[in-house]
C-alpha cells in the first residue's frame, strides 16, 4: 500500500469544514473555469476561422489563375482550359478545379437599377462550394443548354425587391449592347460585403455566349488544394510551371485584410490564455502552501516517527493531483457542455453586418482539446511541486510546537 497516497486520502476527508476546505474549492473552481474558458475560446476561435475561410473559399478557392493583364477590371481576357486543366490535375496537391468567367452588368427592375458582376460557374468537376451559402430557393440548374437561372445575394435581392421565381433584366454594356432576362432561382448569403454587394451567380455558358467564346475559353480557373496550410509552397510550384501570360493569385493576398484580422484574433486569444493559466497556477501554489501551513504539526509528527521528506512531499503531491483532476473534470464538463449547446441549439446570435455570420460558431478539434487538457495538467502539477519543497526546511521539533 502507498502510505503517502493513503494519508493524502485521509487528509481530504479531514479538511471538511476547515479553512483549507474553502481554499481547495477555490483552487478546483479556478482550474475548472480556466480550462473551460480555454476550451470555449479555442472552439469559438477555430469556428470563426473555419466559417470565414469557408465563405471566402466558396467564392475564390485557394488559388486563382487568370490572364496576366495590367488592367484591374473584373472582365479579363480569356484563357484556354484543356491543357491548363490537365497540367493542374497532375499536381498531387490539387483537390479540385473550377473554371469561371465574369461579366459586368446592370440589373433593372420596375423600381430599382443596380450595377453587379455576373460570375459564371459550372459543376462539371463536382458540386460548387457556393451551395453552402444558399439560404432561400434552390441552387442553379445546369441543363444541356445555357441555364437562365441566377442566384442573388440577400443584399442585392433586398435592394431590388426580388425573390426566388422573379424575373430580372440584365443589361450588358458592350458593342452591340445585349439584354438577358434571367430567373432568380435562389438567394445566397455569405455575410461578406466584398461578395454580397457585388456578385450574382449564373451559368458559365451564359457568360461565354455574351463574350462569344467557345467552350474551351474561360475567364480563369479556381484551384482548391488538399491542404490549405501548404498554400505558399504549392503556389510557388504551380507558378513556376505556368505560361508567361498567366498569373496566379493567392486567396490570402486577395483578401489580406480578412486573414490579417483572423491572425490578430489568434494573437489576442493566446495572450488571454496565458493569463488564465498563470492565474490557475498561482491559485494552486497558494492552495498547497496553505495546506502545508495548516498541517505543519502533522508534518513534524510524521518526520519524528521516521517519514522522509519525499514521502511527505508525495502526500501533498497526491492531494494536489486529486484537486487538479477534479478541476479538469468539471472544466471539461462546463466547456464542452457550453460548446455542445451552442453547436446544436445556437442560443447566442451575432450581427451578420459586423461578424460575417448570424451566430457564434463552434468548431470541434479533438487535438486542441487534448493539448489544452495536457497543458493544464502539466502546469498544475508543476504548481503543486513548487511549494512541496518547503517541507524539507521544516524541523520536527519546531513543527510539533507550531500553532
UniProtKB/TrEMBL annotation:
Q: Which family does it belong to?
A: Belongs to the ABC-4 integral membrane protein family. LolC/E subfamily.
* Matching InterPro entries: ABC3_permease_C, Lipoprotein-release_system, MacB_PCD
Which portions of this protein are annotated as coiled-coil regions?
A: none
Compartments where found = Cell membrane
Which PANTHER family does this UniProt record tie to the protein? Answer: LIPOPROTEIN-RELEASING SYSTEM TRANSMEMBRANE PROTEIN LOLE
Q: Does the keyword Transmembrane apply?
A: yes
Annotated ranges, domain MacB-like periplasmic core: 26-236
Q: Give the GO cellular component terms, alphabetically.
A: plasma membrane protein complex
Q: List the source organism.
A: Hymenobacter taeanensis
Q: Which UniProt keywords apply?
A: Cell membrane, Membrane, Transmembrane, Transmembrane helix
Q: What is this protein called?
A: ABC transporter permease
Biological-process GO terms, alphabetical: lipoprotein localization to outer membrane
